[in-house]
Amino acid sequence: MKIAIGSDEKTSLTDFVIKEIKKKDYEIKLFGPLANKKEEYVVVSRKVAESVANKECEEGVLFCWTGTGASIVANKIPGIRAALCFDAESAKGARRWNHANVLVMSLRLTSETLAKEMLDAWFSTPYGKEDFDIRSVKKINEIERLYNK
Hints:
By secondary structure, the protein is an alpha/beta fold. The protein has six helices and five strands, in the order βαβαβαβαβαα.
């Protein structure tokens, strides 16, 4: 699996997450300062989301100071369901109930311990297959189609 990872800052947290993802034997593609390119969160978030939407990468991980801006930008790209998560349970729920394909973390609030727990939950939780999960995602996709004409 190939994971797109981007941030507007290179920090000890981003370095830690990259190492953790590599330990899972996933291929990675880096964006922004993580790829030694000075770019703001809007540009980085768009590039990560587009790489997932166009299937160059299967999933993405994004960071910005609060995580909010990265989430907003990524969710503008059709086919992206970016989830700003603050713990393992929110990461697990985003995967199961929303079929989220981009995990977003706050550089300000996320510790390495929380990041590891979120990554483990994210990568071990499959998309939900219950009727409720499927219906919800279909409704999300319908709304997206209405506004992306």
